[in-house]
Design a protein that fits this description.
Elements lengths: L3 H31 L2 H32 L5 H37 L5 H27 L3 H24 L5 H21 L2 H5 L5 H26 L1 H9 L2 H77 L8 H26 L3 H26 L1 H22 L19
Length: 427
């Protein structure tokens, strides 16, 4: 049952995601309208590589944090989060190094004239502060402080917009400078996030090994899942560029920006709903969790359909106005991506239920099936239907994911209860 506190937190979470979505949309529109399609396609590829790098953080740090931190309190939680902060720093440094190396490898593969190496070096430099900001964001969510998350993300958004605006005014807009602005904005927001969690910085981080063991036990399947998720969500942009041209990635991303408010909102609201779903399971068992998930799925579907009814009639006009006519011929791509958003919203709800029940292995298998179906559809349809075929691969992948995970959700017993995954005891 929704409480006043829950409604307030949900409203803060929605406002938070509206801010993030609007910021991503404004920046994306600025880049898509001012950069040539080839350069914008390189930006899309750089973001896809950054998202691949963030999978380690999400799988092994922040996703388990949202579930495992909520049942703890007091000094136990502070010491747990202090240990996890050190783990986060090490993970971020490793990810940054991997992104830089991948930039060099992709640069060699695509020739000396490629913009990829410079873009990915900038992405690597920004990775550590971006992931630290995301870490403290997850800490605040785990403590049910959605209003504090809203404040922190608003600061991040304002700094991003101001930085990109200054680049435009100074005529210095380029892929690498934009990515460095992201890192600078995240650095400030991360420092503010630290100030909101003084107990985490002050606590003794003497539980590194048991904390890592608990997160690895919970997140190892999520890590593999994130690789499959990346293959189903981000790899198609790189593959479409290889099969067609980087312009294909630019077209799909330009159309995705019109649908981005939905996707970003659903991703961010997981931080609001994950701890509550975990507590619903702990207090009321399977019945309480099932009721929570049904309400969430219905609300998500209604939100997507309402958004689609508004967006579809406006799509031709928006594509002409926002991109100076560059992508005006691709209205059908937006309709395909709206279908994908509907299927994704429903599958997110089901996956949340699997996470709470500890069935992360089933999530991995679902994403493997989804990735195989999506990449297979892209390889089959892109050569014949071009960019439309590449776009159709997205809802094909999401449909397979939804079918598998929905069939699995309550067909197997829950794994080890979250409350039993202890990372240490008080002396």
């Amino acid at each position: 049952m929704l409480t006043r506190e829950g409604v307030k937190a949900g409203a803060s979470g929605i406002a938070d995601q509206v801010a993030l979505s609007a910021t991503s949309l404004i920046v994306g529109l600025a880049l898509a309208s001012r950069l040539d399609p080839g350069s914008f396609g390189v930006y899309v590829i750089a973001v896809a590589v950054m998202l691949a790098g963030s999978s380690a953080q999400v799988s092994l740090v922040t996703d388990p944090l949202l579930i495992l931190a909520a049942p703890r309190s007091g000094r136990e939680q502070s010491r747990y989060l202090a240990a996890l902060l050190w783990i986060q720093v090490l993970v971020s440094l490793a990810v940054a190094a991997a992104i830089a190396i991948s930039g060099e490898l992709l640069g060699v593969a695509w020739g000396s004239g490629s913009q990829i190496p410079t873009a990915l070096i900038a992405a690597a430099a920004s990775t550590v502060p971006i992931q630290l900001q995301a870490f403290f964001r997850a800490v605040l969510f785990s403590r049910l402080r959605a209003t504090a998350v809203l404040f922190n993300d608003l600061l991040y958004c304002v700094l991003r917009l101001a930085g990109v605006g200054l680049l435009i005014l100074a005529d210095r807009l380029a892929i690498d400078t934009v990515l460095l602005v992201y890192g600078a904005a995240a650095s400030v927001a991360a420092v503010v996030g630290m100030a909101q969690c003084p107990d985490v910085l002050a606590a003794r981080a003497n539980q590194l090994r048991p904390t890592w063991a608990a997160h690895w036990e919970y997140g190892r399947w999520l890590l593999a899942t994130s690789g499959a998720f990346w293959c189903s969500g981000q790899a198609p942009a790189i593959l479409a560029s290889a099969l067609l041209t980087p312009v294909a990635a630019a077209v799909i991303r330009a159309c995705q920006y019109l649908v981005t408010p939905l996707n970003v909102t659903f991703v961010g609201l997981e931080g609001v709903f994950a701890p509550r779903a975990s507590k619903a399971m702990a207090v009321g068992g399977e019945r309480s969790l099932g009721s929570f998930l049904r309400i969430l799925a219905l609300t998500s579907a209604v939100a997507v359909l309402s958004f689609a009814l508004i967006l579809i009639p406006l799509t031709p006009f928006l594509l002409r106005m926002l991109y100076r006519g560059r992508y005006a011929a691709y209205s059908s791509i937006v309709a395909v991506l709206l279908l994908d958003a509907l299927l994704s919203a429903c599958s997110r709800t089901v996956i949340l239920g699997l996470k709470v029940r500890g069935n992360t292995r089933s999530i991995l298998i679902g994403y493997l099936w989804a990735a195989a179906a999506g990449l297979g559809a892209l390889l089959l349809l892109a050569p014949t239907l071009g960019i439309l075929g590449a776009a159709i691969a997205a809802p094909v992948s999401s449909a397979i994911l939804l079918i598998y995970t929905a069939a699995t959700l309550f067909s197997a017993p829950a794994r080890i209860p979250v409350s039993s995954l202890e990372v240490g005891t008080e002396p």
